[in-house]
Design goal:
The complex is a heterotrimer of chains A (171), B (753) and C (62).
Chain A (H helix, E strand, L loop, with lengths): L2 E8 L2 E8 L4 H8 L18 E4 L2 E4 L12 E3 L12 H8 L9 H14 L5 H7 L11 H29 L1
Parallel strand pairs in A: 1-5
Antiparallel strand pairs in A: 1-2, 3-4, 3-5
Helix pairs in contact in A: 2-5
Chain B lengths: L23 H6 L14 E7 L5 E7 L1 H5 L3 E5 L12 H10 L4 E2 L5 E7 L2 H10 L1 E6 L36 E9 L2 H7 L2 E9 L11 E6 L5 E5 L4 H12 L6 E5 L15 H11 L3 E4 L2 H7 L6 E9 L5 E11 L7 H8 L9 E8 L14 H18 L4 H8 L18 H10 L11 E10 L6 E7 L5 E5 L7 H13 L6 E5 L16 H28 L6 E4 L2 E4 L10 E2 H11 L3 E7 L7 E11 L6 E11 L6 H20 L30 E6 L21 H13 L5 E2 L3 H12 L1
Chain C lengths: L7 H11 L3 H7 L1 E5 L2 E3 L13 E5 L5
Antiparallel strand pairs in C: 1-2, 1-3
The chains are: A alpha+beta (171), B alpha+beta (753), C alpha+beta (62).
């Protein structure tokens, strides 16, 4: 099968790669682009370890074709910390011990970030259902949910401060 | 001081604090390298051809067409893996499990393997390999395998542990017996006796990271293996032995591990990956698919268990008996024996007998799964305990308290206990507010106890102090859940320096002596003990160096709060030297400062837990939800309490999945029907509540800090705790795990009928 | 049975002397329980006088 040239944006950078039409985005990320933060836990979309966003939408990259990335924007775990500063979710996953082995962590972080962007103040139940597509076998999810709750609180405070600053500037 | 492991009840500065783990940032940024994240220059892709039959004679394997395919660099069958095991039956079984030898023994058994330039070529090559099978009768159920007309898997298995020695082979490998007293007399004394049989289905550890490795063997006979494992030293020995390599010439580097729970204590594809590399003369990467993980790694046993317990009207147990049948897959195991040993370990029994029947069936070779074999036995025993309590009109908790083992009790598996935590966990249950919370309609509360031995084992640890005063701690036990943080805390405590000044690493097999695996809840216990002794040795070196720097006798130097101090009036002008001061001077005082320890810290302290569980059952669908869960367990001493809680919660969640959902489903054809996470459903976030924990600290007398192993016990009580809660919610006694909706509906229908 | 031995190693040596068939079990791997604690490899463990010692099969964990 001939390879297709794919032009895409990954974590804000313009990237080009060539891949056959039947290759998954996960495989392209891991094996062609050196972005091995997304993991293959099942290859069938059941475990969420390969979660990335495609134009802001949460997807299992094992169920997306590499060629589908053409002209789209992808974010992976490698793009979550900005300028060397960890995202509050990343900080809190460490602080709350929301990871033990850590293999599911990149997927959980991506899924949790998408949740908090859409719903800055989720209930415990909303968090649990939003993360139900990601499997963790080590933690029993307890500390993951607590880390997401803490991050939501922090992010809301950051937004509040930003809001106040904006108001301050206007007056 | 020195290498005395006795508990000293010392006051701690940093032990018990909830510091951030050193590998945290790598794991939240995607930088941590797991098994499948490593690549070697020029590596090939290795894939396996697996048996579609539960049991078949392999008449012919024709690889000629596949070999001719462009891009195929090596093909391996059992012919490429000569039997070098020299009478070691355990090694021979491992070899045969890694690659079938004349017979396929289960659905998924490896038949051949290919290394090719890419996945596509390797897949094509697998299709070109022609295998001629002659299907043989198979058996997958543990009880069926013991029937007289069952197909016999191996002609060399003659049941051991029975008299007279059988004259014909069978699927019953061994019968083990544990206990003491006279159970017949004990049952004769009983006012009430309950007898019941139970079944539990096969489950998988379900680690999210599939097995993965990169193997590289050079023409000079040296090799390297990058692999996700719970024990890289053990993998090295096993692989080297099977392949006829010198152990020291194979370097094994452990990747970060994406979950193991016992399943990564055994080799599956690794020896074959090395053989492929040796034949192709190039590195070979092998990554199992999820389907392969389910079909061809090592799940836990399915079981069939009979329990009989008798008691007097005052609640004193007079006799207890269990017959436990566990299948070990296609090869002999010790799983029923472990079940028999653990079954009654929580109780103080005058007359007790447990018989373990280890059975082979046409299923994958069973591996350890967190407190292996204990959860099934606990399900049967703890369910029966509740039934008996009900007959005695006693509260199940009080019945357990009355019969709980304590210091001086003879354990059902033989020895006499030292200070143990079963009584205190039960008392903590009694005091816990969870026990007084109101329940609604269709809800019920249950509790159950669990036991696990905990192991120590061979350990080798290095501690090196850099000239700037920072400390490198190199250990040989895999970090499965944060042990690098706990071990750094221990080094910091001993040296009197901040936690942040210590960096812990997992050394490869070239950098340390042999370390046993991270199994048996031994990681923080064993490497922790070795770290204490290594640090104390380094302190002795630093005392001597300080003496050199001051030019005074070493006897005049003491070590306090991370500083060398000169004692006595004549030295009072000498200002204390910090670890950093001594380290900075080390090039001129004798060179690098280090501490080492090689030891066998056995005695990881037996561990007990009591769990409380509330469930709600939907009578329409039979679906059960755990709505509240509390784990109370003895940790001896929690080095890093957050990670101890994490172990409690994780084990409980695995037990909940086992209790309610998880199950290997085999068809009549002996093939596994649900080898994927969609149909083998492990608990997801929305299935579970927060899991409350209470850490008890009853010091282990055989560890300077009192540490006990903590990793495994929490998976033991949930099956029974949920079964007991279900019984209290709906009035049905579930005797078959998983207690899935169809089974619950059936039980409810029988209740109505 | 009663055996004179001060360490696990001595105990095992005496056992094999008296019961040569024990060697097979030792080769398969044993663990030794002294005062309730299980020892797999630490054969230097001192056995206090009057202790009860149990030989059990070498077991593995997860």
């Amino acid at each position: 099968m001939a390879a297709h040239l794919v032009s895409t944006t990954i974590n804000g950078d313009a990237v080009e790669f060539a891949c056959p039409a039947d290759e998954s985005l996960l495989s392209a990320l891991r094996n062609r682009l050196g972005l091995s933060g997304a993991k293959e836990g099942c290859g069938t979309g059941d475990c969420g370890a390969c979660s990335v966003t495609l134009d802001g939408r949460l997807v299992c990259s094992c169920l997306v074709l590499g060629v589908e990335a053409n002209g789209r924007k992808i974010t992976t775990i490698e793009g979550m910390a900005e300028n060397g500063v960890l995202h509050p979710l990343q900080e809190n996953f460490i602080e709350y011990a929301a990871l033990q082995c850590g293999i599911c962590t990149p997927g959980f972080l991506i899924a949790a970030k998408v949740l908090l962007e859409r719903n800055p103040n989720p209930t415990e139940t909303e968090i649990r259902y939003a993360l139900a597509g990601n499997l963790c076998r080590c933690t029993g999810y307890d500390k993951i949910v607590r880390a997401v709750q803490a991050s939501a609180r922090e992010l809301r405070q950051i937004e509040k401060r930003k809001g106040r600053k904006k108001k301050g500037k206007k007056s | 001081m020195g290498n005395d492991p006795s508990y000293t009840n010392q006051k701690f500065k940093v032990i018990g604090s909830r510091v951030k783990r050193p590998d945290g940032i790598d794991k939240v940024t995607g930088r941590a390298k797991y098994g499948a994240d490593h690549n070697a220059p020029g590596q090939l892709v290795g894939l396996f051809l697996r048996s579609p039959h539960a049991h078949a004679r392999i008449k012919k394997i024709s690889t000629a067409r596949a070999e001719k395919l462009s891009g195929v660099k090596a093909i391996i069958t059992c012919d490429d893996l000569p039997d070098l095991t020299n009478g070691d039956t355990e090694a021979r079984d491992i070899l045969e499990n890694c690659m079938a030898r004349g017979r396929a023994l289960y659905d998924g058994h490896a038949i051949a393997a290919v290394a090719a330039i890419d996945e596509k070529t390797a897949k094509k090559a697998l299709q070109l390999i022609k295998v001629t099978y002659e299907a043989l009768p198979h058996v997958t159920d543990v009880d069926d395998a013991l029937k007289p007309d069952a197909p016999v898997l191996h002609d060399y298995i003659y049941t051991t542990g029975v008299e007279p020695k059988p004259k014909t082979p069978s699927n019953l490998c061994n019968v083990s017996e544990f206990g003491h007293g006279d159970i017949e007399a004990g049952f004769a004394e009983a006012d009430v006796i309950v007898e019941k049989s139970y079944k539990t289905e096969q489950v998988h550890q379900g680690y999210i990271e599939p097995h993965a490795c990169v193997a590289s063997v050079s023409p000079d006979g040296t090799g390297e293996l990058w692999v996700t494992t719970q024990g890289h030293f053990s993998f090295r020995s096993v692989c080297a032995n099977l392949l006829g390599m010198d152990v020291a010439k194979l370097k094994v580097t452990a990747s970060e591990i994406g979950g193991g729970f016992g399943g990564k204590t055994h080799v599956w594809t690794e020896p074959v990956a090395l053989a492929l590399s040796r034949k192709a003369n190039r590195p070979v990467k092998v990554v199992m698919t999820r389907e392969e993980v389910f079909r061809a790694s090592g799940p836990a046993s399915s079981t069939s268990i009979d329990v009989k317990i008798g008691a007097k009207n005052d609640g004193t147990i007079t006799a207890a008996f269990a017959a436990l049948r566990y299948q070990g897959g296609a090869f002999p195991g010790i799983w029923a024996m472990l079940g028999a040993m653990t079954s009654f370990a929580c109780y103080n029994l005058a007359n007790v007998k447990a018989l373990g029947y280890d059975v082979v069936v046409n299923r994958p070779k069973v591996a350890a799964y967190r407190a292996p074999s204990a959860p099934m036995a606990a399900f049967a025993v703890e369910s029966t305990m509740d039934l008996l309590a009900k007959k005695l009109r006693m509260k199940p908790l009080d019945f357990r308290i009355k019969n709980a083992a304590k210091e001086g009790t003879r354990a059902s598996y033989g020895p006499v206990y030292g200070p143990i935590g079963i009584g205190p966990t039960l008392e903590a249950v009694k005091k816990h507010p969870h026990m007084r919370a109101r329940l609604k309609k269709n809800q019920g509360r249950g509790m159950a106890c669990g036991f696990w031995f905990n192991f120590g084992g061979q350990t080798c640890t290095d501690l090196n102090i850099a000239t700037d005063g920072s400390v490198t701690l190199t250990v040989g036990t895999i970090d499965v859940g944060g042990s690098r943080a706990s071990l750094s805390l221990i080094a910091a405590e001993e040296l009197g320096i901040p936690y942040e000044q210590v960096r812990a690493h997992i050394g490869d097999t070239g950098s340390l002596g042999h370390n046993d695996m991270t199994d048996g809840s031994r990681g923080t216990f064993s490497s922790g003990m070795a770290t204490i002794f290594a640090a104390r040795q380094a302190v002795e070196v630093m005392r001597a160096r300080a003496a050199t720097m001051w030019d005074i006798p070493v006897e005049d130097v003491v070590w306090e709060s991370g500083q060398a101090k000169a004692t006595g009036k004549k030295h009072r002008k000498l200002k204390a030297l910090s670890l950093a001061d001594i380290a900075a001077a080390s090039p001129n005082t004798g060179g690098p400062i280090a501490g080492h320890n090689e030891s066998v810290p056995d005695n990881a302290g037996v561990s007990f837990a009591s769990h409380i569980c509330d469930v709600e059952v939907d009578p329409e669908t039979g679906a059960t939800r755990v709505i509240r869960y509390t784990v109370i367990q003895d940790a001896g001493k929690a080095i890093h309490p957050t990670y101890v809680e994490g172990q409690f919660q994780g084990g409980a969640a695995q037990g909940i999945g086992w209790a309610l959902n998880e199950e290997y489903i085999y068809g009549d054809d002996g093939r596994l029907q649900n080898p994927g996470f969609l149909d083998y459903r492990i608990p997801v976030c929305s299935d579970l509540p927060f899991i409350d924990t209470q850490i008890l600290e009853i010091p282990n007398p055989h560890h300077p800090y009192g540490v006990r192993g903590v990793g495994e016990t929490s998976i033991v009580p949930p099956l029974a705790a949920i079964g007991n809660a279900l019984s209290n919610a709906m009035g049905v006694r579930m005797d078959h795990v998983p207690m899935s909706p169809p089974r619950i509906l059936k039980a409810l229908a029988q209740l109505d009928g | 049975m009663e055996i004179e031995a001060s360490t696990i190693r001595q105990l095992l040596m005496v056992l094999v002397e008296q019961y040569p068939r024990m060697q097979g079990h030792l080769d398969e791997g044993v663990a030794i329980a002294v005062e309730g604690e299980i020892y797999r490899d630490n054969w230097d463990r001192v056995i206090p006088p009057g202790s009860e010692v149990f030989l059990i099969p070498r077991i593995q964990g997860g």
